[in-house]
């Protein structure tokens, strides 16, 4: 019985946490980071102020959680590095995972919040970069290093290569959404954009093909 109650309490806590993060994301987007109070977030999330403050004592802590959850949801799968040995297969796997991540509605909202508030709250940009983008980028860079070391790729500058590969995908999947509210590419369009990013990267970094 005690174990069942404990599991029940954990589920309730997780549900309340999810409600708080969802409410905060919507309110930050609609009213700005500075224009949203923790009290208002608690009201919209339908939780008590004490419950909210217990989990997130400051808005900065709450925003940190938004960034972390946006980038690390299904983290084990999202950042897992493919085994070295098949560059095409590895890049394809990474590319589709990244496209899925960038296609999440919450990701567009997160970028909009950061961009809107960056002049007054530069720390939000640092959180987005250090807690979200950088760990993901590093995992891709490490994969390219492993393929280079195994002789399956000729990538002397893995930082540039990772930027190029992820940038090609984000440029189609994410950035148009920042300005075009009706931008909604089909699954086949996204798949094609990933395939083209893979082909371009292979053409540049397959051993013997680098200019």
UniProtKB/TrEMBL annotation:
Segments passing through the bilayer: none
Keywords for the protein's UniProt record, in alphabetical order: DNA-binding
Domain of life the protein comes from: Bacteria
DNA-binding region(s) in UniProt: 37-56
The keyword Membrane is annotated on this UniProt entry: no
Positions of the HTH tetR-type domain: 14-74
UniProt xrefs under Pfam families: TetR_C_7, TetR_N
PANTHER family in the record: HTH-TYPE TRANSCRIPTIONAL DUAL REGULATOR CECR, HTH-TYPE TRANSCRIPTIONAL REGULATOR RUTR
Name of the protein this chain belongs to: TetR/AcrR family transcriptional regulator
Organism of provenance: Streptomyces rhizosphaericola
């Amino acid at each position: 019985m005690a174990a069942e109650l404990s599991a029940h309490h954990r589920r309730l806590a997780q549900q309340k946490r999810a409600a708080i993060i969802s409410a905060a994301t919507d309110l930050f987007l609609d009213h700005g980071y500075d224009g949203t109070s923790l009290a208002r977030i608690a009201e919209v999330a339908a939780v008590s102020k004490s419950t909210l403050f217990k989990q997130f004592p400051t808005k900065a802590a709450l925003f940190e959680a938004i960034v972390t959850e946006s980038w690390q949801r299904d983290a084990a799968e999202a950042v897992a590095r493919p085994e070295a040995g098949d560059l095409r297969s590895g890049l394809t796997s990474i590319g589709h995972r990244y496209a899925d991540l960038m296609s999440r509605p919450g990701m567009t909202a997160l970028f909009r919040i950061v961009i809107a508030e960056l002049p007054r709250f530069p720390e939000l940009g640092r959180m987005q970069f250090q807690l979200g983008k950088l760990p993901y980028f590093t995992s891709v860079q490490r994969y390219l290093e492993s393929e280079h070391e195994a002789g399956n790729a000729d990538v002397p500058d893995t930082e540039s290569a990772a930027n190029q590969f992820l940038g090609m995908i984000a440029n189609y999947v994410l950035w148009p959404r920042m300005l075009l509210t009706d931008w909604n590419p089909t699954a086949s369009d996204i798949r094609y954009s990933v395939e083209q990013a893979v082909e371009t990267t292979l053409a540049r970094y397959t051993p013997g093909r680098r200019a």
